[in-house]
Structure formats: C-alpha cells, structure tokens
Amino acid sequence: MTRNRVLIVVQNLPVPFDRRVWLEATTLAKHGYRVSVICPKMRGFNRGRETIEDIDVYRYPLPIDAQGKLGFVLEFLWCFLATSLLSLKVALAGRGFDVLHVCNPPETYWPLAWFWRVFGKRFIFDHHDLSPEMFAVKFERPATREGGGALFKALLFLERMTFNAAQVVITTNESHKRIAVERGGKRPEDVFIVRSGPDLSRFEVYEPDPKWRQGKPFLIAYLGEICKQDGVDHLVRAVKILRDELKRSDVHCIFMGGGPHQKAIADYAVEIGVQELCTFTGRVSDEDLCRVLSSADIGIDPDPKNEWSNQSTMNKVIEYMFFGLPVLSYDLHETRVSAGEAGMFVTANDEHALAQGVVDLLEDPARRKRLGAAGYARVREVLAWNYSVPPLLAAYRAALGDRSAASPATDAASAEVEP
Known about the structure:
This is Glycosyltransferase family 4 protein. Residues 21-188 form the Glycosyltransferase subfamily 4-like N-terminal domain. 42% of the residues lie in helices and 16% in strands. It is of the alpha/beta class. Strands 3-4-2-1-5-6-7-8 form an eight-stranded mixed β-sheet, sandwiched between helices. A six-stranded parallel β-sheet has the order 11-10-9-12-13-14, with helices on both faces. A hairpin with a 2-residue loop joins strand 3 and strand 4. The longest helix is centred in the N-terminal third of the chain and has 26 residues, at 68-93. It starts with a strand and ends with a helix.
C-alpha cells in the first residue's frame, strides 16, 4: 500500500495564512499526498473544520493570549493538548497519516512524535526558526547557555529532543542546517534545505500608483509581521533622521503587516513626531501588497543584527526582489545570501547608516535599477518556490525509506554567495 498520508502541525500561524506551510501542503497534495493540517484559530481563520484545495484543515481555539514567559508556557501546553487530541481524530476518523510533519516554533511536540512513532509513523521536523535565539532577543538575554538563563536552556533542551525524535529535518537555509547538524546531532544527509521562496503565480507586478506615496516623490516599504524582534522601531527612527538630519522631506514610508507590536510601533511614530511620514496599513490583501510593492522605490529590512537575525532567512527580502526593488538592510549573513547582488548592506544596528542608505539609493537611480534587476532575475532563476519543490519531495522520500534519489539538493542560493 502506498504510504502517502501526511499530517502537518503548525502552531504559530493558521493555514492558509502561513504561506510557507500552505505551499508545502499544496505542493504535497499536487504530488499525490493526502494532506491534513492542524493549526490554531486566528487571523480571521476561525472555522474548526474545512477542506481547502483538497487539504483537510483542523483548527482549535486559542483562548490564551500569551503575555510574558508564563503566558507562553500555558499557551504551549494548551496547544499541545489540543493538537494531540486532533491528531487522534485525524488518525481514527479522518484521512489518517503516515508522516507527522511538525513545524516550529515551538519545539514541544516531540512527545507526540515518539507516541506516533510507536505506531509506525515517520516524523519530519520542519525547522522554521531558531527558538532559543528568538527568546534571547525578545527577552534581552545573551544567546548563550551560560547567560541565557533557565528558559533559554529549556528551549535548547526542547530543540535537542525534537531533533532527536526526527528521522528527517527540513530547514530553511545553510545556517539552520549547520545548527541541526552541530547542535542537533543530525547527519547532514538527513537535513534538507527547503527555502521559503514565493509562488510566482501568486504575485503580479502592476503599474506604479502615486496614491501610496501620499504626495511624496519617493516611497520606501516595509512588509511583514511587526514583532518586537523585527526592529521596525529602527526604521521609524531612520525616517526621523531622514527628515530632521538629512533634510529629506520627499520620502514616505509604508508599513504593511499586523503583529503583536504593530500598535506600539504606530504609537511610537506619533511619539517621535513622524506619523505624517508613515502609513501603517495592518494586514493587506495580496492585491494591495502587490500594488504597494509595485509602487515602491526601496524595500527595507530593518532587522537588527543578533544571533537570531543573522542566521535567519527573511521572506520579506525575497518578496521585495520579486517586484524588482533594491533591498536595503543591515549587514546580516543570511540576508546577503538571499539578496545577493540585489542588496545594499549598511553598518548593523546603526539607524543613521540605514537612513543614509536610503538617501544614497534615492540619489543613484542607476544603482537602484541595477540592484532591482538583479533581484528580479534572482527570484525567478534561483529563489522561487518551484526550486524548493525537489528538496521537499526528496525529504519525504527519505522519511518514507526511499534513499534512491533523496540526497539533500545543493542550496544554490547559498552556493552563489558563500565560498
């Protein structure tokens, strides 16, 4: 009998809102797998049970609004219990599953993985994020075992236990793969790099629309969830520096995305007196996202440099590149890998350097055009989702015991940048 039934578990976002997980799920479905997904109810996706594009989606309520360390612990316990019960429902009354595919954060599902492994299920750990390093950034702790405190050590333990339980690991870049091997003890041949590239069919480039510029000649754009660790406050302060120190009153900045820190950032823009130079849209439709980025002059990633950001792939960078935007960022290793020749990288964590980078790009239209063209081509030739499909399918073949063509594919994006 063909073993082609998959149960994907994701906790931090619902599907289909989580673009990476939804691309994985729909790709597997198109290649003959029968896919079910368990996720929380949030972001307007509140139906407990529905089938979308032949994927069975099971959602559970999330009554706990995690605030602080205790709140996160309670949320993780609730989600673990709800997911465990729904996995029984999928196994006994749904499509069933042969592969349990769990996405982090958090790394709390390894007991469930071992439970289902007793019944012959295979376990794939989809390593999206560096939870210990993210915790250190959010709670301003050193990202070290010695200085990170008890919770940092607990997160390292959960990560290690999850790696131990996984027969196969899917991860997003070479930095994460190195952690899976060195910190997680995985064999390199069991770790598959599946980059989070965009689905080219989902985006469309439009003619620029001046309405987004709010009467200014230039538009700079931020796209993404606004969380504490994302450094969006750096960009707000850079806007103030542009106006007050660099005397550039010809730039408007648009911030697209919701997130737990969005209101605080919008209030901060008012506090420092730049609210008239900033538009906070909250979540936008795919069409508006495309129209805004088609109208922008620069895409900005203000993530400050730390142990989390330096090793993380920022999806916003690749999405800017789809629209032919030059990417302005602090000098982060994995952002250099993603952007390649499309990026301009300035001194890390220096808001004056970020603001000066905006000026330098605006005053050099030829450079903007050259960087934008490089990114436009790179997405279509290296980074689009279709280049991630072969390693995803290879990871599944490996998990199910077929190693004949399952060696991890060369990460072309990293190979072009790293020696």
